[in-house]
Recover the amino acids of this structure.
């Protein structure tokens, strides 16, 4: 069977440039999301082991738990994409889920920066810390767009092209007969007369 451009086992020379770029971008997505998931998971584990009684304890536990799962979900999808053969529809679904998880993480960071329980402490510099956290969150738009939405847009364009033009010709099986038009494979055993 011929190597498809999105084939996980295909050598890099047989993939088209867009597919190779998406695979490399997925590697960067995993390199960003995996450490974030580990750090948030360790924070959540610390909250579980040392249950300090203070305002917002359950909030932090739930926040660390769900954001850890979202970040590690991105890593899981990247590993799954790298090890399987995907058609354009499945690739679009995976890219949409990854972008949705990354956007959810960003929105959670924004809402926590604006309305989180940390701002109710009796510190004098709460307004300054709030402004700094919001600035960090707004700066995080750049890697969000560059790392996640570019691959989503590429997957959507490939899906629309496949839907418009149908299956690509290079994905046909090379050992099918073309000359008789039957599309049957050549038999393994031939009957001698």
């Amino acid at each position: 069977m011929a190597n498809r451009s999105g084939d996980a086992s295909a050598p890099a020379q047989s993939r088209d440039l867009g597919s190779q770029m998406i695979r490399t971008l997925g590697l960067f997505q995993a390199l960003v999301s995996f450490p974030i998931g580990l750090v948030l998971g360790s924070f959540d584990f610390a909250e579980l082991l040392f249950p300090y009684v203070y305002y917002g304890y359950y909030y932090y536990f739930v926040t660390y738990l769900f954001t850890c799962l979202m970040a590690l979900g991105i890593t899981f999808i990247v590993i799954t994409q790298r090890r399987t053969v995907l058609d354009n529809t499945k690739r679009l679904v995976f890219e949409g889920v990854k972008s949705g998880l990354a956007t959810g993480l960003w929105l959670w960071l924004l809402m926590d920066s604006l309305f989180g329980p940390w701002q109710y402490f009796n510190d004098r510099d709460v307004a300054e810390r709030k402004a700094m956290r919001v600035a960090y969150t707004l700066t995080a738009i750049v890697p969000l767009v560059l790392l996640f939405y570019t691959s989503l847009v590429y997957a959507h364009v490939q899906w629309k092209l496949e839907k418009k033009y149908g299956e690509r010709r290079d994905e046909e099986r090379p050992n099918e007969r073309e000359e008789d038009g039957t599309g049957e494979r050549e038999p393994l055993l031939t009957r001698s007369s």
Remarks:
- Residues 12-170 form one domain.
- Helices lie at 17-49, 57-83, 88-115, 126-139, 141-165.
